[in-house]
Every structure is written in C-alpha cells, then in structure tokens.
Amino acid sequence: MSLAFLLTTLVVVATPGTGVVYTLAAGLSRGRRAGLVAALACTLGIVPHVLATVTGLAALLNASAAAFQTLKYAGVAYLLHMAVATLRDKRTIDVDQEAAPLSAGRVIVRGVLINLLNPKLTIFFFAFLPQFVDPARPRALPRMLALSGVFMLATFVVFAGYGILAASVRSHVVARPRVMTWLRRGFAGSFAALGAKLAVATR
Fold first, then answer.
1. Is residue 45 part of a domain?
2. Domain region containing 56
3. Would you write out the chain's pLDDT as a tens digit for each of its 203 residues?
4. In a domain, 9, yes or no
5. How many domains in the chain?
6. Cβ pair 37, 17 in contact under 8 A
7. For residue 109, how many C-alpha atoms fall within 13 Å in the half-sphere facing its CB?
8. Is 41 part of a structural domain of the chain?
C-alpha cells in the first residue's frame, strides 16, 4: 500500500460532503452514539460502489448516459428530500436532552441511502482504484478489495471523528434555540446545495 494512496484517501474522505453533513447533524442532534451510527451507515453505503467497481458495473454506469442520469437524479431527489425534511421537522436537529433517540435502523437507512444514491462515488472508485492496482499482476482483485477496505476504514474513522466532535459541542447549544434554528437551516441548505451540485455533475 502506497503513501500516495493513503494521502489521497484521507483528503477525499475528510473533504466535506453529504456523508460529513449527515454525520455532523446526527452527532449534534442526538449525541455521540448517533454520530457513530451515522458514520457506520455512510461507510456501509460505500459497499455497493465497491462491488460495482470490481464487477465491472461501474464501467457500464460510466458508459451509459441513461443509467448515470437515472441514478444521479435519484440521488438529487433524495438530497432535496433531506433538505426539506431537515427544514420542516424540528426534531431532525433537536438537542433536547430529554428527546428520545432515533432508532439505529433509521439512522443507518438514511446514511446508506445518502451514499448509495451518489453515482459519482462509483465513478470515483472506477477511476481511483485502478491507479493503485495493476490488473496485469496476479491477485489484482484481492488487492483492489483490500484497498477498498482501507478506504472504508478511513471513512469510518474520519466520519466518527466528525460525529464525536459534533456531539462534544452539543451541550453548548442546548439552551440556544436561535442557534439551533440557524443550524437546522444551515444543514438543510447544505443538503440542497449538495443536491444542486450533483444535479449539474457530469461523468
């Protein structure tokens, strides 16, 4: 495993995106456990993209404009749904210490869908992994899977850090409803902006 792969992975993972926004929102609203579950969910959402890459489905997605557009707009629709839900439902970003926690299943489903419905992630793996794996060498597939595992581990560690960081400042905003209102609007705006960015994305 090369240093270039590790550095590139860390840069990609740490760059704020839909998963980071979701994990921050979960940690801030429901605490450390929810932040960690959200980090795990976003990591699990990478699995289908890895499988698509190693089985060649990413090549089809890259070649077929219709397939790419279909998945892309499904992702856009879901991000806009998240934006509207965050803006309208005050419980989505609610740091009330007495609030009942969301079920782990619900947090996981949302997090998986956020990454699953992002065709750019599949294209990223399709373009990214081959740079570090020579298909002509023996055991190329196990190496690709190993590198994907490292990428997923880095994703979980970094996202968990985001979730824990958000949870650590949770107590400082409990008594500030105005701050929470603006945070909710900020998260909603972030989901909407990321959806708009995905909408204009090309392969």
1. yes
2. 18-199
3. 678 788 888 877 887 778 888 898 888 878 888 899 999 999 998 888 888 777 776 566 566 677 667 767 877 887 787 677 767 765 545 544 444 455 677 788 888 888 777 766 777 777 677 677 765 677 777 888 888 899 999 999 999 999 999 888 887 766 566 766 776 777 778 778 877 877 876 75
4. no
5. 1
6. no
7. 7
8. yes
